[in-house]
Amino acid sequence: MQVEVTKKLFTVDEYYRMAEVGIIGPEERTELINGEIIRMSPPGNRHIGSCNRATTLFTEALGRRVIVSVQNPLRLDRHNEPQPDIIVLKPQPDFYGSRRATPEDACLVIEVSDSSLAFDRRVKLPHYARTGVPELWIEDLRHKLLLVFRDPSNDSYQTSLTLRTGDTISPMAFPDVTFKVEDLLA
Description:
Blueprint: H1 12-20, E1 30-33, E2 36-39, H2 45-62, E3 67-70, E4 86-89, E5 106-113, H3 117-130, E6 135-140, E7 145-153, E8 156-163, E9 168-169, E10 179-180, H4 181-184
């Protein structure tokens, strides 16, 4: 006998209500993916260092041309609100104090991957592409690679680059700014 079960998928609004009433504690690191609440691993030192490094590099290079948002939510759709490590956002006068950032606001999303590479590539990447995030960088700390994805189409990106130490990269939105891969990777 086969038993059919269905999952209760949460919306972003329900997710926030759970946090408001204390079902999800303020110290818990979670994100909403496919309507499911996903516990995020605590970041290791390399992960923290990479986030701090990227934040500093982007802030110094782009100044007030952008808002560098660190480990904050990006509302993709009704059932998906990941918390990328870094979002390079278009500037807003209130610094997104009145609303959540959306894919239309993002110039670039960066995920730092020490142990989450498969999840970032197989689960998060299709959501970023489908919702129109123009560019995704995944810092693969284990292999010392920068994976660059551009030109979203459906659930994937049309352009995929693998960069190593010695290579340089310019974000599509800021071709006048160049980063060395070794400066980004911990």
